[in-house]
Amino acid sequence: MGRGIRYERQVLSVDEVALVASTHHPALGALSDEELAKLRTLVRERRDRARDIAARQRREMRGKAAAKGARPAADDTGSRGKRDLLAAAMKRINGETTRREGKAAREAMKDSAQRALALRSRREAESARRPATRTAGEGMRPSDSKATKQRNRAKLGAVSQHTKNMQAKRDGR
């Protein structure tokens, strides 16, 4: 469930509110890649610190750890809320980073495809200018094909029949 800006201001410190505000929609898209990486580092450090404090407070409430201050923590809702808000900010930053990486990959793929198309077009244009094999000019005359000549149909099976006869003669011995 989304939380409002009023809740963010209530739970976070002033500088954390500015960090989280820069992870919302219009401001996040306006950041450069270097600024986004810097923001990612800052928010991650704050989230990890809030996570550790909330875990320590839970241990103090259960009696498993000694109190950090004068008395043990009685409630960790503020620390959990801060941790959740900073985790949501990290999720938005990671989503924006993934979106930018995907866009860069699509652009690179598009550039590669255009380069490959240009290379192919150039290769096809070169092969159209110069034939790969020798071709007939206008001065050549067609020659008769030996396969199209008619054979004497009466003698078509004479060779194979002769072979059969000779084999039968050998088998009969």
From TrEMBL:
<feature type="compositionally biased region" description="Basic and acidic residues">
    <location>
        <begin position="93"/>
        <end position="113"/>
    </location>
</feature>
<protein>
    <submittedName>
        <fullName>Uncharacterized protein</fullName>
    </submittedName>
</protein>
<feature type="region of interest" description="Disordered">
    <location>
        <begin position="50"/>
        <end position="173"/>
    </location>
</feature>
<feature type="compositionally biased region" description="Basic and acidic residues">
    <location>
        <begin position="73"/>
        <end position="85"/>
    </location>
</feature>
<feature type="compositionally biased region" description="Basic and acidic residues">
    <location>
        <begin position="50"/>
        <end position="63"/>
    </location>
</feature>
